[in-house]
Specification:
Layout (H helix, E strand, L loop, with lengths): L1 H8 L1 H13 L9 H7 L13 H25 L2 H10 L6 H16 L9 H22 L7 H4 L5 H11 L1 H9 L6 H17 L11 H15 L4 H17 L4 H9 L2 H7 L5 H22 L9 H13 L13 H13 L1 H13 L6
């Protein structure tokens, strides 16, 4: 469909499509007719088989969004081919703040209750990402000032890239929660993956590349990493820009320590993630404490709030930030925001102690 728009009206029409998707959340009249029809297609029954996957997000949404910034995104930057696309489009180096907000919004939309039902915000968000990827693919290939090396890097945002993106939102999130010390049962983990398998279909990932279960997801992730993970200046620059935003909006230095907790050491070194012996050690200790108390708290129907105040700083920033122009404000269901905040308030002593531990290892302002 996007190829048809490109062939009929050229790169200008594709660029208009891209800008329309950036600026409008649900305005079909801002899109070419073909794109508007695609966005309005009904959701079939298979796509609604999402199990209880969204329940985990309801419980630990702020921590999931924290993992998105400190694990999923830098892991994607370490994949050299995909990182070159991001660098060439300038999305992350020139406007990291916007990219972080839009990626986070997509996760909130698809994982909120009802998001993947017919007409849900998650269906729109996933299809919007699919159109955006297609538009970027054509724009990158059509550029004459900076030609894409297809022999070296293949087709930009190809099926392997899409599968890798799906894994950063699903498999890596479950892995990240466990590395932070949360007890995630195998049932909860499979349910979370099941919801994202639906999102993967909406985003255009071929069925044969969508893993059946978490074991297959792990094998797929490792296979893609073995082919794509490599040190490079592009990933280094993207990570530096991301850390600058996270440090400015949360406790400085802690995002880097969390990256070093969740990403392999070699990947962190390749991305230039800074080391800090005290801060890194405090995060490891906090993860150990969470591993001890989270299973106990679950017996009483709650979860640890050890990371809640820190992660809610990021959520609150996304809500309050000025996105500028015609781009819509960050949408977060009020009941979900209040539930997350209430969780933190009910576990306020533990959250305060954890916050002080994290802050203790952060560099002092100059």
């Amino acid at each position: 469909m996007v190829r048809g728009i490109f062939e009929a009206r050229g790169p200008v029409a594709i660029d208009q499509l891209r800008r329309g998707l950036f600026r409008y959340e649900a305005a079909e009249d801002a899109l070419p007719m073909e794109a508007a029809s695609f966005m309005a297609e009904p959701v079939d029954a298979v796509q609604l088989e999402i199990g209880r996957g969204q329940d985990l997000f309801q419980e630990l949404g702020p921590e999931v969004l924290l993992i998105l910034g400190c694990y999923s995104l830098p892991a994607a930057y370490a994949a050299t081919k995909g990182a070159r696309v991001l660098a060439q489009t300038g999305f992350l180096t020139e406007d990291t703040d916007r990219r972080l907000g839009e990626t986070t919004q997509m996760v909130v939309d698809v994982m909120s209750t009802g998001g993947l039902e017919p007409g849900g915000t998650g269906v729109w968000a996933a299809r919007k990402v699919r159109l955006m990827h297609a538009a970027i693919r054509h724009l990158v290939l059509a550029r004459t000032d900076l030609r894409w090396d297809t022999e070296r890097d293949g087709i930009p945002i190809n099926q392997e890239d899409l599968a890798a993106t799906l894994m950063t939102f699903s498999y890596l999130v479950v892995t990240g929660l466990r590395r932070l010390g949360f007890w995630v049962s195998s049932t909860d983990a499979e349910d979370y993956l099941a919801a994202w398998k639906v999102v993967g279909g909406l985003m255009g990932v071929l069925p044969e590349l969508i893993p059946e279960d978490l074991d297959e997801a792990g094998q797929l992730t490792k296979g893609i990493e073995s082919r794509q993970i490599a040190p490079g200046d592009v990933g280094h620059g993207l990570t530096k820009a991301l850390l600058a935003v996270l440090d400015a909006k949360t406790t400085p230095g802690v995002p880097a320590a969390l990256m070093r907790r969740m990403l392999p050491r070699s990947v962190c070194d390749g991305l230039g993630v800074p080391r800090h012996k005290v801060r890194d050690g405090l995060v490891v200790g906090l993860c150990g404490l969470v591993r001890l108390i989270d299973p106990v708290l679950q017996l009483f129907g709650t979860r640890t709030a050890a990371y809640r105040r820190f992660s809610m700083d990021l959520v609150q920033y996304l809500i309050e930030r000025d996105r500028g122009g015609e781009r819509a404000e960050f949408r977060l269901p009020t009941e979900l925001h209040d539930f997350w905040k209430d969780q933190g308030d009910r576990n306020a002593p533990g959250a305060r102690i954890a916050n002080r531990v994290l802050a203790a290892g952060a560099p002092r302002p100059a």
